[in-house]
Peptide ABC transporter ATP-binding protein (Limosilactobacillus mucosae LM1), 245 residues
Amino acid sequence: MDKQYKVQVKDLHKSYGENEVLKGIDLAVKPSEVVCMIGPSGSGKSTFLRCLNRLEVPNSGHIYIDGYDIADPKTDINLVRQNIGMVFQHFNLFPNMSVIDNITLAPVELKKMSKEEAQEAALHYLDIVGLKEKANVNPRTLSGGQKQRVAIARALAMKPDVMLFDEPTSALDPEMVGDVLGVMQDLAKEGMTMIVVTHEMGFAKRVADRVVFFHDGKIREDGTPEQIFEHPQHPDTQNFLNKVL
Ligand code: ADP
Ligand code: MG
């Protein structure tokens, strides 16, 4: 693996039975780089992200994150996973505990942080996502956008090296989308390394250092937002953009 990269993926393959979903993915992400992944539904974007923190086990290939090969069965995946934050379309907050308890759970259980230290940190991250005043409420009382911002705070509380986002705004009412994207843009500005699957082309244009176009289990095109959105080279990219823009 190459030390200049935070994440390096080499020739990644993943099949479900006969269905080959990832057909040899290569991707390298530098520290503080923001990579947006776009592409049609079913092209393998979620499967790819899930391989990155081994929610899925790839069939072959290598995934290096901070020098550890995630695809290697000998790697302590729980340790690695603590350094990878993941935010999903559906927020998966624990409904039976307060917002702040949602955030402190993993740092206390997995990082062995003291309760007081974890709570102080949680308030800091809630402040970052603009929800400090919601610390003690039940997540059920929050709007979708607020839940998603809590989910981001919860991921940040583990102090991850890399944040993965899988369509974090797709399930939100339109008026909630801006706040969540705003939080993500701030994170990017702060230097977080991020891989973001999104249909928000405006966000990709504004925030991404690089845009990757997925199609049929392969990366068809990889370039700056300007290259991908203004001068797409591959007909599949042109087709896709014509449909969504
Ligand atoms: P995307 O996120 O780009 O929409 P996915 O990665 O979700 O695409 O899905 C890619 C393909 O993998 C689809 O054909 C989907 O049906 C298949 N797939 C995804 N997850 C599973 C699974 N757990 N079992 C079987 N097939 C799956
Ligand atoms: Mg998906």
